From TrEMBL:
GO terms for biological process: photosynthesis. GO terms for molecular function: hydrolase activity. This is Bleomycin hydrolase. It is a peripheral membrane protein. Gene3D superfamilies: Phycocyanins. Belongs to the phycobiliprotein family. It holds the Pfam family Phycobilisome. It is found in: Cellular thylakoid membrane. One of its GO terms (cellular component) is phycobilisome.
Length: 185
């Protein structure tokens, strides 16, 4: 079932046949109060998605060139396209989870059964995990505007979002990437 921070607290309360708890309400108040920050964080990832994905896939190929040689899982172009597409899918579902403040959409729609699919198709775990790690590093840098021109090159782009404490949102975003990594491992 796909939930968000609100429906999650309703389901939790219903499961214990209790009204929404005071602490539950407190968490939702915080969710609303920090809503703009959350939207900025989602935007930081979504508006740099193709750059984040292509950089991650270029990275795994650079580190393991066997991927694009005969027998490699990014060879021929059909598989390279599938790999780039998968990167986009996973990143997109991470943004959905971050937007809704709940991992269920990521779990149900993207991760469920993915490890088995990858095993059946011979998609290498080490490289998939590495691609997600690179997407994580670059997404968190975009959320915090800590990306550098040295690492970004020609495509360098600062989000220029309002500066403030984004530690909780960064940790939450990181946890969704970690969820993808542990689902694939
Ligand atoms: C909505 C959720 C959803 C997900 C998550 C999804 C994943 C997904 N990735 C697939 C294939 C694939 N995925 C990859 C990915 C990679 N190969 C590598 O070497 C890299 C490590 C990695 C990219 C980072 C490749 C190459 C294939 C094609 C494998 C093949 O056909 O031999 C397939 C098999 C069918 C197909 O080729 O389309 C599925 C179902 N599909 C979905 O609908």
């Amino acid at each position: 079932m796909v939930l968000d921070a609100f429906s999650r607290s309703v389901v939790a309360a219903d499961a214990s046949t209790a009204p929404i708890s005071t602490s539950g309400i407190g968490e939702l108040k915080k969710f609303i109060a920090e809503g703009n920050k959350r939207l900025d964080a989602v935007n930081a990832i979504a508006s740099n998605a193709s750059c984040i994905v292509s950089d991650a896939v270029a990275g795994i190929v650079c580190e393991n060139q066997g991927l694009i040689q005969a027998g490699g899982n990014c060879y021929p172009n059909r598989r390279m396209a599938a790999c780039l597409r998968d990167g986009e899918i996973l990143l997109r579902y991470v943004t959905y989870a971050l937007l809704s403040g709940d991992a269920s959409v990521l779990d149900d729609r993207a991760l469920n059964g993915l490890k088995e699919t990858y095993a059946a198709l011979g998609v290498p775990t080490t490289s998939s995990v590495r691609a997600v790690q690179i997407m994580k590093a670059s997404s968190l840098a975009h959320i915090n505007d800590t990306n550098t021109e040295a690492a970004g090159g020609k495509r360098f782009r600062k989000m220029g979002s309002a500066q403030g404490d984004c530690s909780a949102l960064t940790a939450e975003a990181a946890s969704y990437f970690d969820r993808v990594i542990s689902a694939l491992s």
